[in-house]
Amino acid sequence: MREEAFYFFTSIGNYTGQSAASLEEFLQKIKDVDIKSLEFHLFREDFEKWVAQTLGDSKLAEEISYLRVQKVAGNALRDRLYFIVSRRLKELKPASTR
Amino acid sequence: MKSKGQEISLDELDKQILRLLQENAKQTYGEIGAKLNVAHSTVYDRIQKMEHSGVITKYEALVDAEKIGIPLITAQMTITADPKETENIAVKMARFGQVLEVATSFSEELVITVKVVAKDQAELHSFVARSVAPLPGVLRIRTAIVTRKYKEERFNISPEKNLSRQKE
Question: What predicted TM-score, i.e. pTM, was given to this entire model?
Fold first, then answer.
């Protein structure tokens, strides 16, 4: 059981079957998951909570919260979320390999 | 009441007693006997036999949660799972206190249907996200929140004439 994973839903109780247990997996799922799921979780602040509380990355959580404040939706949300997360992964990778 | 292997056949008096108990299980043997024109000891014997044979499984109080300040929402979940894990998931679902019914059913694919109650939508979602989605083998979950109930009854034993009247 991947209790710490992020589980993608499209609405209350409706699970897509997609989950991510790491930031790398999360990035891959952003590309594929139903856009309704991205909008549902952004609105509920679920991404921010998971990134901050489970991954311990408050910087990325703050960046994601800007998307919510700006009410980004649709494919623009997918594109911007993908950009933010991939940029953060690049930032983290050199630090972890030092 | 006669027993043929595992199947138990009830006579008309057994059925009438059951019907009265299903209407109101708090009736005394005497009250039931008076309605059916039989001695209360006969009613007692019949009920004892039906309890011991498992025809009567239990007596319970139905509580109106809203009247005691516990507003509940009910939802019907349909879980699509890896066929190898379906049985395990159904057993695990049955252990949750907020789950009222669990069944496996088959239409185009094998699914697990679950009736669940929660205090509100937030609690419902938290339950599905934290306790159900992470179960190994869960592929997809659809949850429908009940907005209005038009009928909710358990199986009631009815005289055959009533059943035929319902068919008309």
Answer: 0.77
